[in-house]
Amino acid sequence: MNTTTASAPELATALLDALKITPENWHRLKNNRRARAQEQVAAALVYLLKGDDAEALAYLQQAVGWLDRSVSAPPCPSHAPKKQQEGGADNP
Q: pTM for the whole thing?
């Protein structure tokens, strides 16, 4: 392999960076199942290439969940009910 050519882990990380949903785009993309699955698969590839099979599998399972609609986005913390934000019964 040419020394100027990026390694597979570097390429996978670059792909993840390109597909990562940023805080600025979270509201727009939080329910976009394809975008969320793409981000999860890219993260899985990074972990797989690092040799962390368990973490890769967890990300792949999350990606499948987005695609088969078994998971959904959690609510935005800034839109949580006021009681929860102020330390309600669940938040001492």
A: 0.77
Query: pLDDT per position in the chain (92 positions), as tens?
Result: 455 678 999 999 999 999 999 989 988 999 999 999 999 999 999 999 999 999 999 999 999 999 999 999 888 767 656 554 444 444 43
Cα(17)–Cα(85) distance, rounded to whole angstroms?
31
Whole-number Cα distances in Å, 80 to 3, 23, 87, 88, 89: 50, 17, 11, 11, 14
Find out whether 47 and 56 touch, Cβ atoms under 8 Å: yes
